[in-house]
């Protein structure tokens, strides 16, 4: 069966490329959430012709959802002829904005030198197309397969997944008994299995001040200066502490095997809201700092927060007139599926069959939709595996290798066979 799947998928190389180009040509930019429904319907039309039952599910009321930008997800299900487990392939259809620096149209979809170029080629329309080809090929060769196969195209992964996988998971789409195994074809390289991700805590810190005329700052209290004290304290106390923390998790790249903190943005005072192009004459009475704290399996989220809050409380005690508020934006705990779990073991079998080598097991430095499958759906047999190089995601001239897509589709089809039939 492995040889038949490998050969049949190789013969569908052009179909795989065409499908990837079709998906890229839907400019599903998030935010605001453009072209979600037409992209979902395109996937649904194809899978419906192949005998899948199709559902379009709008996440009404989710962040960003509106009649202009509906959060439309597709879930397709193909029942087998015998009882058995369900394997679900989940890919997100949203992409980040193109940004500057492209040498070609980011939504034209271009084939050049064995690569498919375009926004989302790597992250992750190439992976979704590979999963679709893998499932279609498997069904054609095994029309009486046991269990069920599901494929979903979901939205908003790039902004947290709340209108996509989180919404569906809260409604039972990623829980037993409906689903047993989940594969997310994120771009982690064709010979690596991603077992999970680090934790993340996003928070906004606001320092308080008192407004006054800019020519007499001594009559006010500058919130920006208070924030500079926060940043200085982070530099002196927090960053050295994080640098010393290491994990047993196989996080890639190497630098992400420690705790990290990114200062995402700082906003203080009146700028363009006063008068475009002119500075404000006021002492700023508010300054906001967004922090992005990535943490390890060995750390507890309460510890992560306490490290920041203790610094802020220390400033409250030592710095005259210092006051602050801190607001949680998002919290995701670290995840790591064991490498001998069924879905990881099945994909490892596929990697051995296609590449004649043992897979590498990695952890993603950032989060992806596995967090919702595990935390909301309570389904832990979930990994990320797909074609593409993670370093190319979100960059100009993003691309995915055609050979990589073909070979990863072969791996996924072999893994699917093992999960459904229990044989290699």
Automatic annotation (TrEMBL):
Record's keyword annotation contains Electron transport: no
Keywords associated with the record: Cobalt, Hydrolase, Metal-binding, Zinc
Peptidase M20 dimerisation domain ranges (all copies): 196-313
A Pfam family matched in the record: M20_dimer
GO molecular function terms noted in the UniProt entry: hydrolase activity; metal ion binding
Membership in a protein family: Belongs to the peptidase M20A family.
Protein name: Acetylornithine deacetylase/succinyl-diaminopimelate desuccinylase family protein
